[in-house]
Amino acid sequence: MLLLPEDSKSVVEVRVRFNETDLMGIVHHASYLVYFEAARVEWLRRRGMNYASWASGGVHLPVVEAELKYMSPARFDDVLQIETAVTDLRRVSFRFVYRILLGDKCLATGSTKLACINDKHKIVPMSAAMAAALSAGENVAN
Amino acid sequence: MLLLPEDSKSVVEVRVRFNETDLMGIVHHASYLVYFEAARVEWLRRRGMNYASWASGGVHLPVVEAELKYMSPARFDDVLQIETAVTDLRRVSFRFVYRILLGDKCLATGSTKLACINDKHKIVPMSAAMAAALSAGENVAN
Amino acid sequence: MLLLPEDSKSVVEVRVRFNETDLMGIVHHASYLVYFEAARVEWLRRRGMNYASWASGGVHLPVVEAELKYMSPARFDDVLQIETAVTDLRRVSFRFVYRILLGDKCLATGSTKLACINDKHKIVPMSAAMAAALSAGENVAN
Amino acid sequence: MLLLPEDSKSVVEVRVRFNETDLMGIVHHASYLVYFEAARVEWLRRRGMNYASWASGGVHLPVVEAELKYMSPARFDDVLQIETAVTDLRRVSFRFVYRILLGDKCLATGSTKLACINDKHKIVPMSAAMAAALSAGENVAN
Q1: A1 near C CB under 8 A
Q2: What is the torsional sign of CA A79, D93, D85, A113?
Q3: Distance to chain B for A32, nearest Cα, Å
Q4: Looking at the predicted structure, is the pLDDT value of residue D142 above 50?
Q5: What is the pLDDT, as a whole number, of residue A141?
Q6: What stretches of B49-117 adopt beta strand conformation (E)?
Q7: Nearest to A64 among D63, D65, D70 (CB)
Q8: Each residue of C60-119: pLDDT tens digit?
Q9: What interface predicted TM-score (ipTM) does this complex get?
Q10: Which of the residues A56, B51, B67, C78 has an alpha carbon 20 to 30 A from that of A94?
Q11: CB atoms A64 and D73 under 8 Å
Q12: B37 CB neighbour count, 10 Å cutoff
């Protein structure tokens, strides 16, 4: 079972939208990447990092690898808890790991490796401020 | 300017997700239909109506008409206020009207006409309970 | 019934993808805006206009109004015919109108009004070349 | 480098849609799961398997695992070649592997593990016909 590092973990809540389901009556598997993305934007915000202002300044954190395991379906209107944490912090990349829970039940796990790029889409080292924030716990910035 | 009936109005907040933008750097125009949908599900919930339980019971409210006007772009991470109200309540259909605000600024307006159908996709009259709830103000159910 | 101007009309084929459906088992209503968009990009291409090269040059045609009427559901894997034509051609804006057909059956109609903007998101007059192309029939460019 | 088994491979073409991009100006990473899905539906069709008729009959092949590696961005209007093949064929599950090419350049690779379920969302063995088709080359059915 995937274990998230406790000191890095934040829990972000997402309610499943109607359009995120498919004809199987469950959440479409691509929607989980969207939930992961929403969760990591919020994870960053809770540590004082505003991803939108980076993006408008040309600094991006594109996903370079993603892995997902689907254990049990999510359904329309479910309120999902997305546990999110950072691992594998390096000079130009790091990884977010995720667990999606509905109550006590783990529906899915996953990870995304992100690289830091500039406005010319070249990989660049993270700033010291970014690296520090990525190592911080949630309560540091609040 | 679109005026929403005050006694029917609810305001639902949505934060723009990264994937809802497009290469113009703004929210893609189809995303607004998704915001409208999220807003009306919440509108219904605040009046004691659980759309998910209807849907799992085979009662649906498909969109049969939609209209949108885009005045000013929304951007990634914006927290949008979606004003939502019901109008034109009839035996088998009604209309939701919407205004999307960012602070004081109205970014978009729209409406969706919904019909009531059963699990065989046939149009059917709304139940008395549904019609009553659709006429109710937000505070009635709380 | 919506009638498209014959001399402007192109027919673009789209196959419904699995993720475009929702838990009702039919195509989600927001997907039709995506089909319209795919159809007008192809409409432009058939008249010698490459929307991607405009976009990379900072010229955009954002949707400023949209209207949709849904008559009958589309389903996964359906091959839809999207009839597309230009109307209401003006100095800074014009309208695409659409009919979505499955065989002989019209499933939906709609229109989108587009404005011409520059890379600062300011409305600007269309170039003469663009205006000419928007008035052209499909076979002119081929 | 990911190598696809030649005797199982099909190549499916997908043109990038405007809405599949994001504010980075490139295709959003979740869109690749959608391309994979479109490719495997077409892969099945070329071997005489109609996934839509299975789905309407209650047999589904949900994704239970997915992996993606993103090497180089895809952009609006790119015509992508999606190489698709089956591996790891077992009694109740199998894997599709994918390479997304733009001309000679490999933009992304990935795989999805699918399980066979019935209309009660229970995992069931594949039918002999399905297993045979999954082992077949593209030209067998044509």
Answers
A1: no
A2: positive
A3: 12
A4: no
A5: 45
A6: 63-70, 79-87, 93-102, 105-115
A7: D70
A8: 999 999 999 999 999 999 999 999 999 999 999 999 999 999 999 999 999 999 999 998
A9: 0.94
A10: A56
A11: no
A12: 21
Whether the pLDDT of residue B142 is over 70: the answer is: no
DSSP A60: B
Q: What angle do CA A51, A53, A56 make, to 5 degrees?
A: 110
Joined together, the tokens standing for residue D47 give 């071997």
Partnered with residue C95 across adjacent β-strands are C87, C113
CA distance B38 to B51: 11
Please give the model's pTM, rounded to 2 decimal places.
Answer: 0.96
Three-state DSSP at C142 gives coil
User: For residues A39 and A86, is the Cβ–Cβ distance under 8 A?
Assistant: no
pLDDT digits (tens, 9 = 90+) for A18-35: 999 999 999 999 999 999
* Smallest Cα distance from C112 to chain B, Å: 9
C77 touching chain A per CB within 8 A: no
Would you say residue A1 has pLDDT above 80? no
Residue C81, classed as helix, strand or coil, is strand
CB D114 within 8 A of CB D95: yes
Q: Check if the beta carbon of residue A95 is closer than 8 Å to that of residue A41.
A: no
- State whether C60 and B121 contact (CB < 8 Å): no
Structure tokens at D116: 């066979």
Name which of A5, A57, A47, A30 is nearest A136 in CA terms: A47
Task: Average the pLDDT over A44-72 and give the result.
Answer: 92
Which long-range CB contacts under 8 A does C42-47 form with residues at least 24 apart? C42/C10, C42/C12, C42/C84, C43/C10, C43/C12, C43/C84, C43/C85, C43/C86, C43/C96, C43/C138, C44/C133, C46/C10, C46/C138, C46/C141, C46/C142, C47/C133, C47/C134, C47/C136, C47/C137, C47/C138, C47/C140, C47/C141
pLDDT per residue as tens digits for the range C28-75: 999 999 999 999 999 999 999 999 888 888 889 999 999 999 999 999
Q: Is C23 on the interface with B (CB under 8 A)?
A: yes
Q: CA separation (Å) from A14 to A5, A11, A36, C44?
A: 21, 10, 10, 39
Measure CA C5 to chain center: 14
Of B23, B25, B76, the CB nearest to D76: B23
Angle (CA) C63-B22-C121 rounded to 5° is 55
Q: Do D55 and C76 touch (CB under 8 A)?
A: yes
A117 vs D121 pLDDT, higher one: A117
Q: What is the pLDDT of residue C141?
A: 45
Q: Which two tokens stand for residue D61?
A: 């092949």
pLDDT over threshold 60, residue A16: yes
